[in-house]
Amino acid sequence: EVQLLESGGGLVQPGGSLRLSCAASGFTFSSYAMSWVRQAPGKGLEWVSAISGSGGSTYYADSVKGRFTISRDNSKNTLYLQMNSLRAEDTAVYYCAKDLKMVQGVIIGTFDYWGQGTLVTVSS
Amino acid sequence: DIQMTQSPSSLSASVGDRVTITCRASQSISSYLNWYQQKPGKAPKLLIYAASSLQSGVPSRFSGSGSGTDFTLTISSLQPEDFATYYCQQSYSTRMYTFGQGTKLEIK
């Protein structure tokens, strides 16, 4: 059974940093691209970042480019999101999500499994 | 960036009704269009991918159609568990996967 479990959320002051983790199980983690998707309170879904299975390709939404870094440790089956220079508008539930298909070196951008989400609140 | 626009933003319907939700892309995205269902406090669930392919385990009352810029999600006979918010999402632009603003489906 595929499972994705996020952790690392919490309350942080504007300008601060936080690192989110997503522990994966039930599939060959290194074979699938992964993404982070966020949802501000009462709002819609916003894709944040994606990383290929090997970690060699990464992409970011313009809203987080230069502030967030996506990475993965395939030996630990874990996805990360390092968030720096946090702003109030980054307040959201952050989900990790698995790509639907395994295509080497390619990010499909269709998400068949999602974690339960971790809440990040940026406030003074 | 590719913008995704859903209509309507909200919809009231009854159990047994046939419901259609529309999603329009700001440029052609071929068939790179996915539909998700989200219930309050839960993660989204993939329903339809590649515009018309039903995800494994999803009931056949859900169907998708369209290509290019115009797409639809149809629920043939609403069930009580279908009341939720639905999102379309384009996976054409490999560097920016945008979602529609959502359609909230409520009980009439």
Cα-atom Rg of chain A, whole angstroms? Answer: 14 Å
**Coarse morphology of chain A:** globular
Beta strand count of chain A: 11
Largest two-chain interface = A-B, 22 and 24 residues
Major β-sheet of chain A, in short? 7 strands, mixed
DSSP strand content of chain A:
over 45%
Number of strands of chain B: 10
Helix content of chain A: under 10%
Number of helices of chain A: 0
| SSE class of chain A | mainly beta
Low-confidence stretches of chain B: none
CA-to-CA gap between the ends of chain B?
36 Å
Strand content of chain B: over 45%
Arithmetic mean of pLDDT of chain A: 96
The averaged pLDDT of chain B comes out at: 96
The termini of chain A sit apart by 40 Å
The profile of the biggest β sheet of chain B is: 6 strands, mixed
Q: What is the oligomeric state here? A: heterodimer
Which structural class do you get from the secondary structure elements of chain B? mainly beta
Low-confidence stretches of chain A: none
Strand order of the largest sheet of chain B: 2-10-9-4-5-6
